[in-house]
Specification:
Layout (H helix, E strand, L loop, with lengths): L7 H6 L2 E6 L2 E6 L14 H17 L6 E11 L7 E10 L3 E9 L5 E12 L7 E3 L5 E3 L1
Antiparallel strand pairs: 1-2, 2-4, 3-6, 4-5, 5-6, 7-8
Length: 142
């Protein structure tokens, strides 16, 4: 299954899309040694990225032609994340321009490792190609 858009960072991390429909998502992630922290467990930033992507994908699953950006995200870490992981995203409410979403990161046994809630904004998809950001944070194409 494809994400529907090219996301280089997601590709680099090796995420797989397992579910993308009806306000739900499942993102697979098999951590590599470079994803670990000094305690030998998955780095919190990698965990948060899985959760962020799971929430964004759940929100996009009901509006697949739109782009989406994270407005805010709150994450709670419950236990160390080890081994193959899944981010389970769920759209809780949406308006024409906003999505309110949550996701849980679970290990291979289904135990929750982290949980996040987030607010996302639906945006018009930008053209592909080289882009630049000026001092007013306005994205323009070259």
């Amino acid at each position: 299954m494809e994400f529907g858009v090219d996301i280089p960072f997601v590709h680099h991390l090796g995420f797989t899309l397992e579910r993308f429909d009806g306000g739900f998502s499942t993102i697979g992630f098999t951590p590599k040694p470079e994803h670990m922290n000094s305690f030998g467990v998955v780095h919190g930033g990698a965990c948060m990225t899985v959760l962020d992507v799971a929430m964004a994908v759940a929100a996009r699953s009901v509006n697949k032609e739109s782009g989406i950006v994270t407005i805010e995200m709150k994450t709670s870490f419950m236990q160390p994340a080890r081994g193959p992981l899944q981010g389970l995203g769920s759209l809780k409410h949406r308006t024409a321009t906003m999505a309110f979403v949550e996701a849980t990161l679970v290990d291979a046994e289904g135990r929750p490792c982290a949980h996040a809630t987030g607010t996302f904004k639906y945006v018009k998809r930008l053209p592909t190609g080289p882009r630049s950001v000026n001092a007013l944070n306005v994205i323009s194409t070259d």
